[in-house]
Predict the 3D structure of the following.
Amino acid sequence: MEHKVVDHLFRHHYGKMVAILIRFFGLSHIETIEDAVQDTFIKATSQWRTQIPDNPEAWLNRVAKNRTIDILRSIQAEKNRNLAINTGASSLQIDELFLDHEVADSQLRMIFVACHPSLNPSEQIAFALKTISGFSIKEIAAALLTKEETISKRLTRAKKTIIERDIQFQYPNPEAIHNRMERVMKVIYLTFNEGFHSTNQDKLIKEDLCGEAIRLCQLLLKKEQFRSGSLYVLFALLCFHMSRLESKISSNNQLVNLKNQNRTKWYFPLIKMGNSAMHKAMDYDDSSVYH
Amino acid sequence: MKDFMMIFIGADYQELGLSPEQLQERMGKWFAWNEKMQKQGIVKAGDALVPNVKRVSGPNRTVTDAPLIEGKELIGGYYIVQAENADAVVKIAGDYPDYDLDGTVEIREVMVFDQQ
């Protein structure tokens, strides 16, 4: 029987698994969890050479979960003290956390952690790309046109801040949501911009960055409490831009301005999505820089 | 037809710090290669190896854990395939996915003992 693995499954699943495992084991184990998830993919690359499992996602979830427990146990044994491995979410069995709505919920929490006000903006975007979107340090450096070393430092600093300030893996309080959403939208907008305006020759990285920004927007729009005119308008803006990603670069890699673009290359479904988001935005009173 | 072993040296994914996206791409290439060889019916055996190394050496059977081996010298796996001659295996090895990561394929013919 032939199995196909969905495009970008690993990258998208990286963010999902990191978010779920953090929800279960706690944000303080982020480093261990990221290692465990990475190990899982390496294991998959050798084990799936001859046969891809019937349910690749379930395989990844199971292996990542066990690997995390293994690493945490060995840390515990080394320290020879009782480390409460299970922090938080103890009433939920970990397997239940792998259900779709829980995955989305964990990823949303992760977005708010990434956009926490104690992290500075350059750390926020690097951290979001790594932990939510599953980019490697090398890819982030390429996307942001920065040195790998700089990205490493930003990530280390972000993780250190999260642990030192004991940032919780939670949604912000209702009264703080408005302010936090502004940061979240900014990170999404910047991520998109990096992809859209980048002079990076690597077309895949560009598309992936833009695609990630749109995906995160969609994720937020699914929850009533995060919806706003601004978020809908931002989503519309990204859809409209994305629809002409193909046509804005000529075959010899030169920018083509809007007037001269080949409109038949514009991707119509995205324009439609953007349009409907624009209409929805009208139901809200707020306005923003994205309007 | 003779048996040949293709030994894969170097390109340790763990050490190279590949991203999930890149790992998936590699995995796809290995899968496609394996499938191609399976369809041709030439694969006799093959495995990927766990990177942890233990070495036993000397008259005292000294055991060393050898994480000291550099990634580029590490054997990552092997296939045993059937082919007419070594040149045919060189051709098969052309599809090995990790040349761009400095990986190497060593081809060795499996020795057949004379049956008396």
Notes: Chain B has three helices and six strands. The radius of gyration of chain B is 16 Å.
